[in-house]
Every structure is written in structure tokens, then in C-alpha cells.
Amino acid sequence: PHLPHISDEYVILFLHSNYYKVKETKDTIECYFTLRANTPDLFTNRDPFAPKNKAILDITNLASKCSTVENILQLANLLGSLEPKYPAPITHMVGFPNKTAEGYNVLLYRLAEFDYSKLNFADAVRVFCMFNDVKLSEDRLSDGYIVIFDMKGCSLGHLTRVTLPALRAFMHYIQNAHPCRLKKIHVVHTVSFINQVMCLVKPLIHSNLLNLLNFSSEGPESVVDKELLPEDFGGPLPPVKQLHEEQRKNMEENYREWLIETEIFKADEKKRIKKPSKGMFASFTSSFKSLDID
């Protein structure tokens, strides 16, 4: 009784992600809606136009709005500098249009703004989840996903921006609640302090996810077919920045209302017959035994 009503298509998505194993599907659905209820910082305020979300997604170039040198200098003076400032996205999140030979979708995540002081980790995780919800909606029953995390531009300062509650919730979501088939996670342009990064996240990673991880000091072209990649990495596709802009607009124009509406997709703890155990990695299956999936 504590779970919201979901469509048959949504149930099929969860079934597909669990290879049509009913028990695992029940566990994933239970975890999905419980996590969304217990971590509002990550699963509410999902309007792409909300300032915090735009800071992650927006790639507007202020200089393009200044038609004269005088305007540029006026803008520079307002910003307290002799040089114009160019707002950039904090991150790039892109799904490539073509699939691998195995039929897998390829997703790329990277920093677009290297100044660590501008990164709010919880905001980035929220937008990451929004982006992935859109991709799952569009890709439907994908055979699998290859995920590329590009660490270019990452510094030790970025580690100081990571908050443990958001990181713990994020890792729990990816491993136990995200309705997709993860096939491989490539971490490219690895940094010299990758061991420190792994010390931070390894206690939160299950062994099956660890087996999916692959690290490369080179770029995305070292881990997937170059023909699948943007010109940034020697491939035939448009630049990452252009792909990001197109997909950002798609989210804003075609999925804004849906993203806002799905904020109600969460467990109602007042209606839960048996309260789940405390602790982020406790089992979420105890109260889900009554759910029937035909």
C-alpha cells in the first residue's frame, strides 16, 4: 500500500533491467521508491529550469549576447574584471546516438567547468538522475549501457565537494534501484589521485559493480570504437558541447513537466505496514512480498 501506482510499461522496464527475474524486480522497485522518498535532496526540485539544475546543465555563452566591444567591456566591468566572463556548464552529460556492436547504448559524463568551488555534488547527482530518467524513457528496453566517466579536469579540490550522504545515496541508487542493465563503466583520463578516489567510494561498491569498472589513463577512444564518438575524441559525431546542448534542450522542451510530475513517484512511509531497517544499505525487500507482477 505504500508504493505509488505505476504503469505496465514502467513495471516492464524494471523486469527487463533484472532479466525478468521477479524477486529481483520486486526488490529493485521497492528500493527505487523508498530511496526517492528518503532522499528529497536528490529526487525533488527536478525542474530543468530551476537555478541549481540550470547551473549544472546550462551552456549559454554570455559573449554571444554582446554585439559590440563596448558591451563586452561593460559586462567585464560589471564582473569586476578587464576580461569578459564566459559561463559554462559545470558538467556535460551526453548519450551517443549510435550503439556498440553488441547493441549497447553509450553514455558520457564529464566536467565542463574545472573550478571545483562551483560544483555542488548533490545538485550534480540530481541532474544526473534526471538525465538518466530521460534516457531510460527514450531508450526503452535497452540491451545494456556502457558508461564513460571522463576525469579530465578533476582535482583533489573536487573531492572536498563530495558529501557522504549524497555519495552513499547515489551509489545505492546505481547499484540497487536504477532500472537499467549496466555492462561496463569506463573511467578515462584517470588522475594521479585515483587511489584516493577509490578509497572514498570502494566501501560503498558491491563486488559485482567493481567487476564492471575499467580504468584508462587515455581518453574514451581507448575504450570504445572511435566511430561512436564525437570529434573531441577523433570520432565523426558533433562535439560533446553540441550534443549536450541538444539533449539539454530536449529535456527542457519535452520532459520538463514529466520530470516535475515524477517527484510524486516515491514510497508513502505513513502507509508502510512494516518499517524498513535503518541504514542506507539495509534490505528493502521485507515489505514488498505482497506485490504481484503478472
From TrEMBL:
Q: Which InterPro entries match?
A: CRAL-TRIO_dom (IPR001251), CRAL-TRIO_dom_sf (IPR036865), CRAL/TRIO_N_dom_sf (IPR036273)
A GO molecular function assigned to this protein is: phosphatidylinositol bisphosphate binding
GO CC, sorted alphabetically, is: membrane
Quote the PROSITE patterns the UniProt record gives.
CRAL_TRIO
Pfam families linked? CRAL_TRIO
Q: Which CDD domains match?
A: SEC14
Signal peptide boundaries: none
Give all residue intervals belonging to the CRAL-TRIO domain.
83-241
Q: What is this protein called?
A: CRAL-TRIO domain-containing protein
Q: Which organism is it from?
A: Spodoptera exigua
